[in-house]
Write a structure and sequence with these properties.
The protein is built from eight helices and six strands; from the N terminus they run E-E-E-E-E-E-H-H-H-H-H-H-H-H. The chain is mainly α and about 230 residues long. The protein has a two-stranded antiparallel sheet with strand order 1-2. A two-stranded antiparallel sheet has the order 3-4. The relative contact order is 0.09. The site of zinc ion has 8 residues, from loops.
Length: about 230
């Protein structure tokens, strides 16, 4: 007997406290076929990324498991005054199409921006939206959202300062720059990860070397000449 790939969990809405159900993909049935260099996953069967956002069917508030369980008073006010009466209430609790997934991410982005969520959460939502467009090979929209995601990741890095010795974040900033064709910027971030003696994350150091090499090839393919920085 085949197991149903989705199961339901109960979530309490951070705004109206309504308890609703939302679907998740069973961990044992998550089958990644491949992963892109910026961690975009491709799955056989249900895509777990389609089920990241939880949307309350009674008030429309959308968030992820990384958001706070409860909104602070000023966040409640922002949501109530700015968007609550504009949201169309819909139940996204069952299985989701690509279109549904995109709607839920855009709702979560709108809610996150309205209540002033952290840049890390906003960056991740923007990045997921870019991936959805990549699945559909819509390059214009993909690049547009990658650029927004990149700007938010840079804010995360700047806010965390030197203490935020986050190799994965720095690698992502380099890789999104490379994907957007900003080669000089990309190299700056890759070389930071490679040359910073405090960074011990071997997988990220290797990824930076690989993407730097790929970038040189891309530039040569496009007939561009390599500067000293890019040669490394
Ligand atoms: Zn609600």
């Amino acid at each position: 007997m085949e197991m149903e790939p989705l199961y339901k969990i109960k979530v309490t809405c951070a705004y109206c406290e309504n308890v609703f159900s939302t679907s998740r993909v069973r961990p044992s049935l998550k089958r990644a076929v491949k992963t892109d260099t910026d961690f975009c996953g491709y799955y056989r069967g249900e895509n777990p990324d389609y089920y990241v956002v939880r949307v309350c069917p009674s008030c429309g508030f959308a968030s992820t498991e990384n958001s706070n369980d409860r909104l602070a008073e000023h966040q409640r006010r922002e949501f109530e005054e700015k968007i609550s009466n504009r949201l169309v209430k819909r139940d996204y609790g069952g299985s989701r199409t690509w279109e549904n997934a995109l709607e839920t991410y855009k709702l979560a982005l709108l809610c996150a921006q309205t209540v002033g969520e952290t840049d890390r959460i906003i960056a991740s939502l923007l990045h997921h939206i870019a991936w959805l467009y990549r699945y559909r090979e819509d390059q214009d929209q993909e690049q547009r959202f990658l650029k927004h995601a990149l700007d938010s990741y840079i804010k995360v890095f700047e806010n965390e300062g030197i203490s935020g010795n986050d190799a994965r974040l720095m690698y992502l900033i380099g890789e999104l720059n490379r994907r957007l064709g900003a080669y000089n910027e990309a190299v700056k971030w890759f070389s930071r990860v490679i040359n910073d003696k405090k960074i011990m994350d071997a997988a990220m150091i290797r990824a930076c070397r690989e993407q730097w090499a790929l970038l040189r090839e891309e530039m040569l393919d496009q007939g561009e000449s390599l500067t000293e920085e890019i040669k490394g």
